[in-house]
Design a protein that fits this description.
The protein is mostly helical and 85 residues long. The chain has four helices and no strands. Helix 1 runs parallel beside helix 3 and helix 3 packs across helix 4.
Amino acid sequence: MSDLPAGALDYQAVVAEYFLGLRGSGLMLSPLDQEVVAEWERRGLPIAIVCRGLRRGLEDLAERRAGGPRSIRALRFAVEDEWRA
């Protein structure tokens, strides 16, 4: 669970905390990743869909032994697939 206060957990913060937790490293998202997350927020993608897409994207990479992603941008297609599903 995040150490951030509940009032600080906006869309960007929740997605960042979830991704960094899945990845197991890092302190913050890159500006390019923040832009991808902001676009999802503008489009109205629910946080649950984004998080599920990120998790499934990581699982797919693990199955293919392709290593872990370094960015949310690397998983954006998995999130888009989850949104369409």
